Amino acid sequence: MKTKECPSCAMEIPKNAEECPICNYEFPVQPKSHAWIIWLVLIAFVLMLFGGIARFL
Ligand SMILES: [Zn+2]
């Protein structure tokens, strides 16, 4: 099993653990799977921006 080091108590704990079983340190959740939604909103916003500019040309 893969392990990671707890930044709070420096113990080796399971890599998939969301919090340390020794000191109850909570690991920050990395929202990697939602990154594409941010890009989608960003692209939609840029398209809307260009659409607004096109009206004035
Ligand atoms: Zn810990």
Q: How many structural domains does the protein architecture include?
A: 1
Profile the largest sheet: 2 strands, antiparallel
The number of helical segments is 1
Q: Secondary-structure element order, as H and E?
A: EEH
- Hetero groups bound? zinc ion
Residue-averaged pLDDT: 90
Poorly predicted spans: none
Helix/strand-derived class? alpha+beta
How much of the residues is beta strand, in percent?
5-15%
CA distance, first residue to last residue: 61 Å
Q: How would you portray this structure in words?
A:
- Helix content is 39%, strand content 11%.
- With 57 residues, it is an alpha+beta fold.
- It has one domain (3-56).
- It has a two-stranded antiparallel sheet.
- The longest helix has 22 residues, at 35-56.
- The model has no long low-confidence stretch (mean pLDDT 90).
- The site of zinc ion (ZN) has 8 residues, from loops.
Summarize the structure.
About 40% of the residues lie in helices and about 10% in strands. With about 55 residues, it is α+β, with helices and mostly antiparallel strands.
What labels would you give this structure?
binds zinc ion; 57 residues; alpha+beta
Topology:
Layout: E1 3-5, E2 12-14, H1 35-56
Bound molecules: zinc ion.
Zinc ion (ZN) is lined by residues 6, 8-9, 11, 20, 22-23, 25.
